[in-house]
Each structure stands twice: as C-alpha cells, then as structure tokens.
C-alpha cells in the first residue's frame, strides 16, 4: 500500500462566517502525481495554505511526511517545494541572486542540481527577474521550489497564464524531473484535460468536502455515459447516477461505478438503449460537480 | 479516448507501417513519459499491454524492443486478434447502414494504405 | 537566515534612505549656512518635515508595496517564522526613518552647535523629532497593514496626523478657556513640545512607549493574518 506523503483528516476552515472547508479528508500516496480539482473558490488554495501552516484550521489536521502543519510549520516548509499561483518574485534581483538568496534558507539546497536546472530550464543567470517572460517566470518558480530537493512538491495552478506550448513544456519538466525522482507532486489546476495525462490520482473538492478521490485510470473506467432513447422522465432512482440530461430526443445518463451489470439493469428498467460512451476528465468533473441528480434527475 | 489507448494505437500503427521495425529499441518508460508529458505509470501500462499482445518485448535490464516473434504466434491466434477488431467495425457498419460491399471497399483501402507505408519504409 | 532577510529589506530601503537623508541634509546645510532664518527655525522645519514625511514614505513601501506586487506571499512561504519577517521589516524601517533626523543632528551640531542654540537644546529637539518619527511610523504601518494600496497607507498616516492636530486644537482651547494644560497633550507625539520647557518629557515619552509597544504587537498579529489571505 505504501505510505502517504500528505494526510488530511476532518479539515474545517471558515473565513469569518463563510465556511469554506467542511471536513476534508484526503490521502496522497508517496511518489504519486496527485491532481487536486475544484471550481474557482472551492477552497483549493485555502487547503494548500493550511497544508503549509499559513492558516490555522477550525478543526481537523493535516500532515506532510508525518509532520503536523500546525505544530511544526517551519519544518513542513523546509521539506516542501511550493509554487504559488501566479508567483511573483523580487524583480530587482538577478536570477543568480534570487537563487543564492533562497538557498540560504534551506540547509538541504543542492547547488549542483540547481545549476543543472538553470541550464535545462533555459534561465539566463544574469537577467533581472522583472525582465522575464511569463514562461520563464514559471520555470524560475519551479526551479526555486525544487532547489532544496524536496520530497513533496505542491503546485498551485502552476500553468496559469502560460501559452499551450509553455504549459506542455512545464508538465514535461514535472514528469521528467519530479516523477523520475520519486517526488510526490500535489497540484491544483482547472485545466482538466491537462491534468488527465499527468496525474495518476484525482480528488475533487466541492462544497467544502472531497466528493471523489480515485486513481485517474479507475475513475475513467468506472464513470460512463449511457445514452437512452426513452420517453421516461424519472431517473433519480438509478444507483450511482451523477447526471441526467436531455440531449435532443434522447437522454444521457452519467453513472459512476458503471459495471456491465449496472448497464443491464438500466437497459431492463428503461429500455431504448442506444450506446455507452466513455467520458474524459472534463466531463466526469462536470457530472460530479454540476450534474442533475436526485430531484433534478427528472428531465 | 483515454490517453493510454491513444498511445497503444500509435505504437501499433508505427509497428504495422514499419516505422518501428522488428528488433528496434523503443524509448524507456521515463523517456517516453517525459517526451509525451504523460504519467510514467500510464506508459508502463501501455508497454505491459503491448507485451501481452506480443507487439513489444521487455528485455530485463536492457530495455524494451519491438517484438520479432510474430511467426511464433499460431495463425489461429493471429486471426482471432484481427477478428476481434473487425467485429467492432462490423457492428458499426450494420448500425450505421453501411453495406457489406462499401465496408469491404473501405477495408481494402485502409489495408493498402498501411501496406504501402510499410513497403516504403523497408 | 536573518542575514539574507536583512539584506533583502536593506536593498529595497537603501534608496529611500539616501533620498531622505539627502533632502534633509541639503536643506539643513543650506539653511544653517545661509543664515537667512534663525537656526531653531531650520531645525524645527527639518525635524517636523522629516517626521511627517519619512515615516509615510517608508510605511508605504514596507508591506503594501510587496503585497501589491505579490512578492509578500513568496516571503510567507519560506521556512521562516512569520514574526521574524515582521520584526526585521519594522526594525529596518525604523532605522531608515530615523536616518534623516540623525543627519540633521550631526550637521546641526557641527555647523551650529552652541551658536544660537545650546548643544543640549539641539539634541533635545532632535530627540523629540526621533520620538515623533517612530510613533508616526509604527502607527501608520500597523493601521495601514490591511491595505494593499500604498496610497491608502499614506492616507492612514495623514488621518492620524489629523487626529493629533485635533487634539492640539482641543488642548489650545482648553488652555485659553481654563488656563490649564489638558490631558490631551500626552496623546500627541509632539505634545511634549509644549511640556519640554516644564521638564514634562517623561509622561509623554512613557505614554508613547506603551502605545508603540501595543501597536507593534498588534501589528505582528495583523501581519500574520496577511499570510492566510488571497492576493
């Protein structure tokens, strides 16, 4: 089974009276690339700040490599490589200056590795940070997060503002530099079609709790769309129904844990089976987060 | 289509058209994962499946190669593998009202295309 | 870890320090040399000017600037106690705020010590100026901590000055009406300008010492709260 690099249990947090996290439970296996999904404002960045000990939870705990984020926040930040959303660094420093500056905070900083990274990521040592392009800025932020050889890397929407080519390059670095070295990568993004090839685990944060956490592969295999041509209207009783929508004359049902047995049951109950389709991560996410189920599943 | 399926099809296509020849070494799991910006576990899954289907062969400690022992697979088994894929095509054709003759024509066209690509690369 | 943090703050503050010292220095130099105005006027002008403007100038850049350009959040993510970040910023900020006063003091002593004013008087004015500057600085930084716009921070400082001016007005009214000096004198950081003659330094000084300490601690808490916020 292996150890968990990150463990979150019963995490609750509210900004004033707005409850953002209402009991989050999450385990991130060591060495995995873990995709943390959720709509804007769902609380992804809040969760990350709690993980880094920058916020105090109202209840629950979180641990990184066994270290409690509240009891020993400094140690957590020592072993974690963190790349903030749209990270800005001191524009007046040159790249070699900011690297040296950051190195002084981490006893475990690897100069040789950092030098290699500077070349690999094509970052000009003598340039001032304020002259960097967005792509270079992101690569620099990644380098600064990796320089002390952390075991866990947390990336908060790292590809924000990058063009498609720069995004792919960035993910390439994540795979090549991090997964190759057994580093646990926890990253949040809302470009799901990008997370899908890269993440081996997925968790969806919605309404303050984790509504789904699964291996990407299993999730894709288990959630299917069943298309029916039927005049029936009430689909709320289907077990594992995520979404029921009318598509022209037909009805499309997104169902989780969709085994052959379940499909047969649907066929028997409703008839008019047209076909069964696989869904991509975007569609799966949509079904979980804004799907019509329960009372709303009566089209 | 899931990523791993796409990669499997890509590799099979390359083998069929001779871009990847028998005995050629394919990139390591890490190399391919990095190149495609895809999770290494996915590439591993791809390679494992292709080994099961005897398209690739993993040499311990040496790397992964394009399999060269197709001749060792009994003809019946090879035919069965093709039949499985053709069944799907048949289902589609019947559902979409494509006649047998039209379907045969399409099959011939695709077959020729792959074959001539293969011959060109030899 | 303290050294690199100091280095970074210093690098950002040094130009402001040079600017402040140069302006004040030039003013004092020409003022004292040209002898158009009495020495005491030059001193008061430079001290009051510096104490009003320098703290605003520095306070604006200390937190608000870093917040608006986003680099503050990079600081918070470091494996460093957030309180340490705060203390270093405040100490260096205070040093820079005081530097023009120091320049004025040195120049005044060298050029006009014992001339129209006794040396002890010159020192006294500058000490009061230093007091004023520190109070202004701490109060502005801490009250304006939650603003991400530098302009709003400056306005906060100006608001405090307005409040103190009001106290002085009350004080003057009370004096003329009842012939006694009201308690509001203690509140204003320049309250002892009046009390100085009667040797009433201590209560004013103590009051503001406690005030600054309280603000300083409150500021640490507000700074920590910034760490959790979004941009």
Keywords:
heterotrimer, B: 122 residues, mainly alpha, 3-stranded antiparallel β-sheet, 5 helices, 64% helix, globular, C: 231 residues, 9 helices
Summarize the structure.
With 122 residues, chain B is mostly helical. Helices cover 64% and strands 8% of the residues of chain B.
Structure overview:
The complex is a heterotrimer of chains A (299), B (122) and C (231). Chain A is α/β, with parallel strands linked by helices. Chain A has ten helices and 14 strands. In chain A, the strands form three sheets. A six-stranded mixed beta sheet of chain A has the order 6-7-8-3-9-10, with helices on both faces. In chain A, strands 2-1-4-5 form a four-stranded antiparallel beta sheet, with helices on one face. In chain A, strands 12-13-11-14 form a four-stranded antiparallel beta sheet, with helices on both faces. Chain A is elongated, with a radius of gyration of 22 Å. Chain B has helices at 3-16, 29-36, 40-52, 75-95, 100-121, and strands at 25-26, 56-59, 63-66. In chain B, α1 packs across α3 (40-52) and α2 crosses α3. In chain B, 64% of the residues lie in helices and 8% in strands. In chain B, 17% of the residues are buried. Chain B has 122 residues and is mainly alpha-helical. The model of chain B has no long low-confidence stretch (mean pLDDT 85). In chain B, strands 1-3-2 form a three-stranded antiparallel beta sheet. Chain C is an all-alpha fold and 231 residues long. In chain C, 83% of the residues lie in helices and 0% in strands. The two termini of chain C are 25 Å apart. The model of chain C has no long low-confidence stretch (mean pLDDT 83). The interface between A and C is medium-sized, with 23 and 21 residues.
């Amino acid at each position: 089974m292996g150890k968990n690099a990150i463990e979150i249990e019963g995490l609750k947090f509210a900004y004033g009276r707005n409850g953002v996290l209402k009991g989050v439970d999450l385990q991130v296996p060591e060495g995995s690339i873990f995709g943390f999904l959720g709509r804007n404002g769902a609380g992804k960045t809040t969760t990350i700040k709690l993980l880094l000990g920058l916020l105090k939870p109202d209840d629950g705990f979180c641990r990184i490599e066994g270290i409690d984020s509240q009891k020993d926040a400094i140690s957590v930040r020592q072993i974690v490589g963190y790349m903030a959303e749209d990270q800005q660094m001191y524009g007046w420093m040159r790249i070699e200056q900011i690297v040296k500056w950051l190195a002084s905070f981490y006893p475990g900083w690897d100069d040789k590795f950092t030098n290699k990274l500077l070349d690999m990521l094509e970052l000009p040592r003598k340039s001032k940070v304020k002259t960097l392009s967005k792509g270079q800025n992101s690569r620099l932020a990644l380098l600064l997060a990796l320089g002390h050889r952390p075991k866990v890397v947390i990336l908060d929407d790292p590809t924000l503002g990058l063009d498609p080519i720069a995004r792919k390059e960035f993910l390439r670095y994540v795979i090549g530099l991090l997964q190759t070295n057994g580093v646990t990568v926890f990253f949040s993004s809302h470009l799901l079609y990008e997370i899908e090839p890269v993440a081996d685990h997925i968790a969806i944060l919605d309404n303050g709790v984790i509504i789904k956490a699964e291996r990407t592969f299993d999730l894709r295999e288990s959630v299917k769309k069943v298309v029916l041509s039927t005049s029936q209207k009430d689909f709320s009783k289907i077990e594992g129904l995520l979404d029921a929508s009318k598509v022209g004359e037909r009805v499309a049902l997104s169902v989780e844990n969709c085994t052959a047995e379940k499909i047969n049951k649907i066929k028997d109950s409703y008839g008019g089976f047209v076909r069964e389709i696989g869904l991509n991560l975007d569609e799966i996410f949509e079904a979980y987060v804004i799907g019509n189920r329960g009372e709303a599943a009566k089209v | 289509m899931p990523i791993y399926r796409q990669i499997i099809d890509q590799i099979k296509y390359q083998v069929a058209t001779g871009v990847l020849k028998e005995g050629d070494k394919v990139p390591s799991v890490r190399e391919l994962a990095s190149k495609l910006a895809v999770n290494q576990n996915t590439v591993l899954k791809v390679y494992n499946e292709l080994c099961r289907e005897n398209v690739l062969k993993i040499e311990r400690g040496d790397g992964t190669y394009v399999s060269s022992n197709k001749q060792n697979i009994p003809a019946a088994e090879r035919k069965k593998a093709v039949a499985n894929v053709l069944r799907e095509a048949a289902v589609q054709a019947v559902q979409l009202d494509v006649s047998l003759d039209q379907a045969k024509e399409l099959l011939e066209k695709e077959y020729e295309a792959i074959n001539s690509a293969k011959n060109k690369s030899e | 870890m303290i050294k690199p943090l100091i280095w970074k703050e210093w690098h950002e503050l040094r130009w402001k320090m040079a600017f402040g010292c140069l302006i004040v220095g030039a003013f004092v130099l020409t003022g004292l040399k040209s002898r158009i105005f009495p020495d005491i006027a030059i001193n008061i002008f430079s001290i009051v000017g510096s104490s009003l403007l320098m703290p605003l100038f520095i306070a604006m850049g200390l937190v608000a600037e870093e917040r608006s350009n986003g680099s503050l959040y990079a600081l918070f993510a470091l494996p460093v106690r957030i309180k340490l970040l705060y203390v270093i910023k405040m100490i260096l900020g205070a040093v820079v705020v005081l530097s023009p006063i120091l320049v004025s003091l040195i120049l005044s002593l060298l050029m006009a010590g014992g001339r129209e004013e006794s040396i002890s008087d010159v020192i006294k004015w500058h000490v009061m100026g230093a007091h004023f500057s520190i109070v202004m600085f701490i109060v502005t930084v801490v009250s304006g901590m939650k603003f991400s716009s530098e302009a709003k921070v400056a306005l906060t400082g100006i608001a405090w000055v307005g409040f103190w001016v009001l106290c002085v007005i009350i004080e003057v009214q009370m004096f003329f009406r009842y012939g006694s000096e009201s308690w509001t004198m203690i509140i204003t950081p320049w309250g002892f300008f009046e009390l100085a003659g009667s040797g009433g330094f201590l209560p004013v000084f103590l009051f503001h010492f406690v005030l600054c300490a309280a603000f300083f601690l409150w500021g640490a808490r507000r700074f920590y709260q910034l760490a959790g916020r979004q941009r």
